[in-house]
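Predict the assembly for these two chains.
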Amino acid sequence: MTPTRKRRLIAVSLILAAIGIAAALTVLALSRNMSYLFSPSEVLAGKAPDGASFRLGGVVLEHSIKRAPGSLTVDFIVTDRFREMPVQYTGVLPDLFREGQSIIATGQMQDGHFSAREVLAKHDETYMPKEVADAIAKAKAAEAVQHAGNPH
Amino acid sequence: MFPELGQFALVLALLLAAVQCTLPIYGAWRNNGTLMGIARPAAAGQFVFVVLAFAILTWAFVSQDFSVAYVAQNSNLSLPWYYRFPAVWGAHEGSLLLWILILNIWTVAVAAFTRHLPDALMARVLGVLGAISLGFLLFTLLTSNPFLRHLPALPDGNDLNPILQDPGLIVHPPMLYTGYVGFSVAFAFAIAALLGGVTDGAWARWARPWTNVAWAFLTLGITLGSWWAYYVLGWGGWWFWDPVENASFMPWLVGTALIHSQAVTEKRGSFRAWTILLSIFTFSLSLLGTFLVRSGVITSVHAFASDPRRGIFILVFLGIVVGTSLLLYALRAPKVAGGKPFRLLSRETLLLVNNLMFVCAAAMVLLGTLYPIIGDMLGIGRISVGPPYFGFVFPLLMLPVVLLIPFGPFFRWGVADWRGALRSLRPALILVIVAALAAKLVFLHAPLHAIVGVAATFWVGAGIVAYALKRWREAPAGHRYTPEMLGMILAHFGLAVFLAGVLITGATSVERDLSFAPNQSQQAAGLDFRFTGVTRVQGPNYLADQGTVEVRDGTRLITTLHPQKRQYSGQQMQSVAAIQGGVFRDIYVALGDPLGNDAWAVRIYVKPFVRWIWFGGLFMLAGGLTAAADRRFRGKRIVTDEPASIAAAPAQATA
């Protein structure tokens, strides 16, 4: 083999090995760390994974924030304006968290309520995350279908 | 001053950009000196009009002209004067204008400092930069004009987003943009080399100082952004793998590969085609970053309400830039593998591994960042890829880099003496083992990855120090360190400092959310935190609840901290953490919500070595700038470059 060919062979095999390893790792990590976003309607329809972590998106229902005095644990309700989901969270809430604000909470279902590990509200208060807006639109569409098929 | 004049200045700049990107390139093709000569005056003229437009917008902010819609949206009467300047780039339209201004500063700098380079090459380089400017000026004028009037003028403006009312905002975006945009110079040199036909690696030498400076500024911008997120966002972390952070990190990763591959191309003539491809990738990722931040296609903590038309414009622009450059690359890239031969064990191979790992890491970050969009398009569902994905794959991809980096300087070009290199690194290796054992003994409960972290830090740090010492002993005085070499030493040492910060903070930080009644004391990380209560404080344009927390070590008072929760006039809340910073430990206290009965939620972090993360970034900044200052890059007028590059190579090979 000429030196040039040998060099190319080394380069190509290095590149292939690196890409192969990186791709394998990436696929493995992706499949483990994807988390889906659901609206309260979807969760109540049983679409969210049972006992696994997912993200809940929606609006904090007005007058729903409750906490025992002196306790870091807070209870509130997240709604997509059709169905509601009680949420419990322990810790410091983000600055923009308030009633009527759209949020995304990460956590899992526990005894009929959503136990959140992290709550995110966005920097810009007029901004609704696209995912939450989509989820609300979807819940609305599902509701419309239900009404059409059930004319009471 | 009339804001319409600003718009007029932008239109004139647009026309000059159109001239700059057509006539000089045509002139270079036809070998017409007059047409090529247009490039520099056109660039200068464009610069003048862009500066004028920027000055007019700044004046509108300073004089609080609320008849300008953009000013009314991002400022108000109570905004202190020192925040009116950064308010110019506080939102989309103004930050785009800042992008264009910085591009023009780069272009004028390139025009001014490259008079010794061939005219045809420079005509093409300035032409390509003009084309980029043309695209962004069009973008501004068509979709995001900052000078639009809102008549009648509003009595008061909306307010600058409180999260941006911070000294960090004054410096973070300009530094980040200087880095982002600076890669356009490397891109322009690569495209100019393709247009003119690549004959050797000379263009890489001319492009190198620019790439190094751009990389240094991007490093600084990311470092400042990380620092800002740490103390403003109040999450106590320094990196969140947020799409907007990733947007700046991807060009940095590929840019890091690029500065190394440019060195190979310049000194050895190898990797020619690859260096061109990397230049294209780096700048394309800068554009992609702009697209991701500005289009709102991705859910991010930084995301602001945005206009989809803008996203489409940048996407089309990105498509044109990437498409034409890759087409040009396919047609004109050097077909024959050139350069001096090298063996498996050589500096070239190590740099190849560096390039592969950094490019793979960038691809991995890109996949994770774009996956939610892909998932959305394929109808899989609303997916997000969390930090654990990045936190798992990224360190694994960087592991070979950390293991091999000390060998880099000790390996020679062409063929390396690996036994000699290992001999030189023996003291470093011994130090690593001693440090790891000592760490294991001192911190009995330290997790395994903390020990590995200590070892990695010492390996990289002691490795580069060993090289610096060897050079000091063996090279004659006055020739010990070229600026280029010194830059490398500083940047690699910065990596060691950075690793120390990341790994020690990650392993030993304490993070607690606690509920405090007035005058209650609680323990965290062996320290005593006493909360004395909350008072009302009036700021220049906000009203704040200010907590007081006394921190004691035993009975000794370390510090008294005053975290605030501010209510701005626009009804927006913003908490401001109080931090007692130190080289070896940060104590960080943020005020949460009132919990009733005068109790408050308080977030407490104790973070050892966290500042080393940013110190490391500063070392890398210094390294990039030092390397760019090498005298080799400032040549006399060069006609053919080949003899010079051969002369330079042996001097480096003995390094």
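The first strand of chain B starts at residue 383 and ends at 385. The CA atoms of residues 268 and 339 of chain B lie 6 Å apart.
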